[in-house]
Amino acid sequence: MGYKSSKTTDIYTHVAMKDLRKIKSPLDSLQIGEVSVISLAGEKTAIAIVDDRIVRLYAKGLGIKTVHSTFLVFLALEKGLISKQKARDVLDLMIDAGWRCDVETYKDVLQVIDRIG
User: Fold this and answer.
1) pTM of the predicted structure, to 2 decimals
2) Residue 11 has pLDDT above 60, yes or no
3) How many angstroms separate the Cα of 49 from the Cα of each of 3, 24, 60, 66, 97?
4) By percentage, how much of the chain surpasses pLDDT 90?
5) Among 70, 86, 88, 114, which has the highest number of CB atoms less than 10 A from its own CB?
6) Mean pLDDT of 87-103
7) In this structure, are 62 and 87 located in the same domain?
8) Does the pLDDT value for residue 96 go beyond 90?
9) Are the CB atoms for 51 and 68 separated by under 8 Å?
């Protein structure tokens, strides 16, 4: 490292390694279900339906295409399989079941629903 004493280099290396062990990868937080979806999509050359940003970035890094779960609602509405009201109801059911989004995202999704069809 350019220090006069190798002991100085050893000390800096030890401190740096100690600090590096504290760093956690965002991928450490992936759940088994998310990993399974990405794995299956990769095996089948399919599209993964995932909402988590970290998971989408991970999939993108693996060359796997992703869509949000709301995409399915939009697609069903676009194909005439459900009405706009049913699409809104499905969105609320998703939230009741644990799907999370902020208020702005909710408003954006409702605007997309209103524009489709």
Assistant:
1) 0.68
2) no
3) 52, 25, 12, 6, 16
4) 57
5) 70
6) 93
7) no
8) yes
9) yes
Question: How big is the chain by its Cα radius of gyration, in Å?
Answer: 22
At residue 95, what are phi and psi to the nearest 5 degrees? -65, -45
Reference 72, options 31, 45, 42, 112; nearest CA is 112
List the domain range (segments joined by +) for residue 46: 30-67
Beta-carbon-side half-sphere exposure of residue 76 (alpha carbons within 13 Å): 15
Same domain, 109 and 78: yes
Give percent of the chain with pLDDT exceeding 70.
Answer: 74
Residue with tokens 């970290």: 54
Distance of alpha carbon 90 from alpha carbon 117, whole angstroms = 16
Domain count, the chain: 2
Mutual orientation of helices 70-78 and 103-115 as an angle, nearest 10°? Answer: 20
